[in-house]
């Protein structure tokens, strides 16, 4: 059986130092069969935790109509509950990433999913709207707590410069997000069930705590600022990196905005063609599943240390289906939607991993920016934008807007520093 040497580097070495390495890849070397990745058990637990966390992140959107009936809310007010959840789960991620970079943030991996399970699972037992709002916000903060630290661990479990583990981690989150609506809907609407039975889903806090504790016990020493040396000012962490960081964030935000514009336009697109709600659900499911496939395959196959080329190629490729979609005949529109999802998700994990590599002293903060702030910003802008364009003109106009936004995303990727400069930023502080 073929064997290989592997490990986790704690400094600027080649990543082959394990535990007691001297920071230059000269530590103890361990050998493992190539058929079994040394971090497979840890990665499996991390993916299960991600699936549990993201399962709860879709509860509030799914329960909008139930919450509206329970508290006599109109559609706009019910939508605001989802907005509150979005702010808690996404826009707060950079804050928790910064905290985790300054101090040992391993505990967030345990607390985050458990907090989400308890708070969001108890929504059906809340007798007051104020308490419901608090449960939504705190529960979605649990989602935000988990992601920056977990995304950094996913990258550490993979080979240097590779987005493969990041892709697997993100695909697990997609699976959980897709399962969430079915889980909560079954809990509260199955025969004999009521909204008060939502507490059953809180039992997922038990495996979350179990997997979290097992994972923490099996982790190597954390690469937080407290462990790797004296703390640095935030401005020092970003010195010499501003252009690369903010262009990468801009490219990710505009890519995700285009993704969300298409997602929100599907319902209007099908309504204008006389299709029913079941068709909307099928098309959205195909689109989201295609994104997950693109993330998984793209992250596994994208070349290491050539991220700029991969980003430009994928963002250029997605323009083809994006610009075909507004004029696509009914017979092929669903296929074009699927191709769009695959292409738009192809290098999402590559961008996240590149961000972590070029901000070595703030990996958790940049993870929160790339996976939280970008998603949250796109999620807040897309629904009203699509609604306005569809009302004033048509879904055709909204889909054209997605193509224009895709061109902007490509422009941001083209404006990134050259690959040689990006590779230079991977090392120590500059």
Determine the N-to-C terminus distance. 43 Å
Mean of all residue-level pLDDT scores: 83
Estimate the global geometry from the Cα principal axes: globular
- Output the CATH homologous superfamily of the largest domain: MFS general substrate transporter like domains
CATH topology of the largest domain: Growth Hormone, Chain: A
Number of domains: 3
* Structural class category: mainly alpha
Q: In order across it, which strands form the biggest sheet?
A: 1-2
β-sheet strand percentage: under 5%
Detail the poorly predicted runs: 1-34, 222-230
Count the beta strands. Answer: 2
Q: Report the biggest beta sheet as strand number plus sense, adding barrel if it closes.
A: 2 strands, antiparallel
C-alpha Rg (nearest Å) = 22 Å
Note the run of SSEs as H and E: EEHHHHHHHHHHHHHHHHHHHH
Helix content: over 70%
How are the SSEs ordered, and which strands pair?
Elements: E1 3-6, E2 30-33, H1 40-57, H2 59-62, H3 64-71, H4 75-91, H5 93-102, H6 107-121, H7 129-157, H8 164-189, H9 205-217, H10 225-228, H11 234-238, H12 242-271, H13 277-301, H14 307-317, H15 319-324, H16 330-345, H17 348-358, H18 363-392, H19 395-414, H20 419-424
Structure description:
With 430 residues, the chain is mostly helical. It has 3 domains: 1-38, no CATH class; 40-221, Growth Hormone, Chain: A (Up-down Bundle); 238-430, Growth Hormone, Chain: A. Helices cover 71% and strands 2% of the residues. It has 20 helices and 2 strands. It has helices spanning 40-57, 59-62, 64-71, 75-91, 93-102, 107-121, 129-157, 164-189, 205-217, 225-228, 234-238, 242-271, 277-301, 307-317, 319-324, 330-345, 348-358, 363-392, 395-414, 419-424; strands spanning 3-6, 30-33. The protein has a two-stranded antiparallel sheet with strand order 1-2. Helix 3 packs across helix 4, helix 8 (164-189) packs across helix 17 (348-358) and helix 12 packs antiparallel against helix 17. It starts with a strand and ends in a 6-residue tail after the last helix.
């Amino acid at each position: 059986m073929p064997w290989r040497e592997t490990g986790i580097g704690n400094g600027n070495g080649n990543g082959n130092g394990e535990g007691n390495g001297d920071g230059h890849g000269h530590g103890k070397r361990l050998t493992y069969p190539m058929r079994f990745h040394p971090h497979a058990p840890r990665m499996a637990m991390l993916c299960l935790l991600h699936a549990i966390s993201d399962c709860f992140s879709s509860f509030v959107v799914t329960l909008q109509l139930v919450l509206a009936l329970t508290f006599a809310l109109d559609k706009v007010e019910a939508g605001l509950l989802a907005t509150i959840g979005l702010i808690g789960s996404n826009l707060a991620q950079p804050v928790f990433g910064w905290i985790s970079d300054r101090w040992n943030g391993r505990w967030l991996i345990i607390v985050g999913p458990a907090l989400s399970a308890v708070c969001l699972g108890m929504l059906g037992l809340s007798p007051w709207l104020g308490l419901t709002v608090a449960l939504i916000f705190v529960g979605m903060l649990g989602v935000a707590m988990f992601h920056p630290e977990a995304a950094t661990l996913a990258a550490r479990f993979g080979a240097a410069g590779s987005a493969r583990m990041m892709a697997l981690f993100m695909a697990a989150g997609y699976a959980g997000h897709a399962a969430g609506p079915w889980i909560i809907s079954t809990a509260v609407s199955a025969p004999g069930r009521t909204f008060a039975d939502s507490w059953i889903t809180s039992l997922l806090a038990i495996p979350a705590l179990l997997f979290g504790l097992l994972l923490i016990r099996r982790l190597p020493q954390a690469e937080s600022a407290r462990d790797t040396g004296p703390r640095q000012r935030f401005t020092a962490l970003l010195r010499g990196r501003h252009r690369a960081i903010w262009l990468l964030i801009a490219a990710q935000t505009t890519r995700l905005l285009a993704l969300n514009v298409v997602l929100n336009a599907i319902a209007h697109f099908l309504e204008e063609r006389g299709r029913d709600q079941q068709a909307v659900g099928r098309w959205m499911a195909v689109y989201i599943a295609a994104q997950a496939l693109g993330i998984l395959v793209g992250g596994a196959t994208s070349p290491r240390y050539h991220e700029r080329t991969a980003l430009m190629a994928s963002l250029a490729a997605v323009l083809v289906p994006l610009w075909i979609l507004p004029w696509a005949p009914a017979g092929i529109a669903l296929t074009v939607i699927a191709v769009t999802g695959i292409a738009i998700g192809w290098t999402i994990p590559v961008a996240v991993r590149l961000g972590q590599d070029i901000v070595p002293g703030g990996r958790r903060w940049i993870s929160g920016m790339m996976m939280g702030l970008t998603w949250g910003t796109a999620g807040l802008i897309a629904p009203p934008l699509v609604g306005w364009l569809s009302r004033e003109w048509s879904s055709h106009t909204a889909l054209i807007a997605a193509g224009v936004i895709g061109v902007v995303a490509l422009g941001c990727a083209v404006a990134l520093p050259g690959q040689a400069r990006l590779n230079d930023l991977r090392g120590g502080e500059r």
